[in-house]
Amino acid sequence: GESVGLHLPTLSVQEGDNSIINCAYSNSASDYFIWYKQESGKGPQFIIDIRSNMDKRQGQRVTVLLNKTVKHLSLQIAATQPGDSAVYFCASGTYKYIFGTGTRLKVLA
Amino acid sequence: DAGITQSPRHKVTETGTPVTLRCHQTENHRYMYWYRQDPGHGLRLIHYSYGVKDTDKGEVSDGYSVSRSKTEDFLLTLESATSSQTSVYFCAIREGGQGDATGELFFGEGSRLTVL
Question: What is the pLDDT of residues A36-50, one digit of tens each?
Fold first, then answer.
């Protein structure tokens, strides 16, 4: 069946550095991709999304890159801050969204 | 914050008992979802609704049923709870008209269920 997976369960980054979280998906027909951030004890929060007709989309301090050839997307966080510490999920699909297992981002002081 | 309320937020129950979790929204959104979250599995879709009385199964629907009799409420029922259903359950809502397949999900704060 369709799957979405993140490459690393944990990522440690020095405060101020850039973070890159990677995600792979299996369904080449996927049309929509979305990134979420989840802090401990809370529900996931929307970060940014991208549709398959785009390669790149930027938000505030975040950029999502989509490579449809290798079915890969990444989330880049610029100048990582302590408040960025959380678990990050990618998801894809239409109507029914399939989520990856998450990458925990740890920001080192 | 999106107007989503889940209840109860915490529940401990015994194997074999029925359990109903409620998701209530004040946004009048068409689409509502139930996910469960377990370590190592991320978020897995149980059921979703695309309108009043319109529902569809997700990845892990066995052992769960849902009902949506009005726009604002989406109920998740475990007819006979099992220990494997111990999890954190999240409700989500999405804006969109009929046929709108994509868009941001807004999540509730979760309901932690423990089945002994």
Answer: 999 999 999 999 999
